[in-house]
């Protein structure tokens, strides 16, 4: 019999068990350890796992070598098809705690009582790239949460934007084809900097609003821990009395919403394509668990047509100033998976996995998604038994008449496997609403069969795109324009570039004129739509800022001021700042008072873009010229990217003033008794946009 793994390390870090973790324990196995002998999958012990069976020392391989056959054929089948979209992902476990009871609007159990906790599995993903692409691509990101509730699994599938790129699921194949690599060359990978995507955008202009979000800083999150999430679709809450309320959900990261610069994202994608994965792993391992608050926007059924947007139109957001976000609970991610393939790669999320109290609306995208997701996984995993895979398995009892298919592990011993029977007392029996049975909302349906759009709102492509533009700060606007230009300069077709400029003039005339000049096309005619409204909630300048879990690179050699550096590192640790000690080689560096500090990274393996801030200590090194050059590269990059820089008393020679810089965000320790606190404040601010 196989031994089970205790997985104590994961559970101890998360501070206890939950029902899902307890369920998974029965599937965990440990293959290594004292006394463990290798077997094949049939349980037969293996005497030689290194050399194949041959006819003579120099002879051919024998077909009777069943151990080689089993080993190689299993290896040949280790991979399953990757997801068509959202192939590159990473999943972690956690729990959701309700802040308040929402019984007045929904009968959903996990939202029914303040303090009620529900185990969850959360998967972050990129839309365009393959499994082997990079984390930091300018891309649409998934933020999927599987709630293991007492009423079955509920899947919430979010993006980092509140709007979608299309208004009807019929176009999903088309936009995916346009965004994916050229089918002739299979390039470019994980980017929309190519002709097909921008040809699609110009000829399917309902995409304008989401493309604005994609090209903004929101398309380049600093971390999954600092990324918001919106399920984009409109759902219904149904309460015990059967009353319906329109609802949209939002995840708000407790650390605020923060982003990479375009240059940083591009460079990080090359030097560390696993940047976001490393970030969340480090945070969880250090106990700095990522936290997100769940908010809901509610619109009464009778107010469906009260707004200048259609509640069913996924290319439109519900402005928070008009439909406030009510915070109702908190998600905490606190446990890593034990096996990436078994848990992350085999995890399945489906918008049709809803529980009593949450219901579909006639949202055209949601209607299509409710079919597409499960069908994709039925193909990908070659089985109808995807909910039997441990990570997908609900924690509640399941009784059904479904049978067979590939990968069937459950042994159903019933003779009767059909409904409406007498031999088993007509069990499993239907559950009444009072017993927790799911009942669909009896919404009124009328009209002729049609392919018409639901309302005039679905023809309005630019009002909310203009609202988005109006809501940005000057820094964000400049970043947005530069990101547009970066992607469109990769477009070879001058016609496509011209079509885009002609399209984006509807959002902002000045922006379109700048684009025209940079893209070598004619100035567009017309002007932007006459919308003056803005939504302060859209701008990232209005998000919370903290030093907590920001990552600082400490650049240090021998002979540093021991007392000063010890004090600064202590203050950084007290404020939850993550640090890497970087020098010319691994080992230790020694200060002027004998203080020894362990070096865990070197200039050879780390790059400036991987850090939110740097602390320049300096010192002596074996190869001083190379050491100084390494520090200067960090200083120049950090300064260029508007990042905080702390300068110790021994590091001042690495930064020189001139008429061309103002040292905004550069904190000097010389003659500054509050240097540690001032540096922490600068780290919290994160960027100094007024730097020259």
From TrEMBL:
It catalyses: 2 H2O2 = O2 + 2 H2O. SUPFAM superfamilies: Class I glutamine amidotransferase-like, Heme-dependent catalase-like. Keywords: Heme, Hydrogen peroxide, Iron, Metal-binding, Oxidoreductase, Peroxidase. Residues 39-427 form the Catalase core domain. Residues 1-52 are annotated as: Disordered. Residues 1-28, 37-52 have a biased composition (Basic and acidic residues). Its EC number is 1.11.1.6. Its cofactor is heme. The keyword Iron applies. One of its GO terms (molecular function) is catalase activity. Belongs to the catalase family. Decomposes hydrogen peroxide into water and oxygen; serves to protect cells from the toxic effects of hydrogen peroxide. This is Catalase. It comes from Virgibacillus natechei.
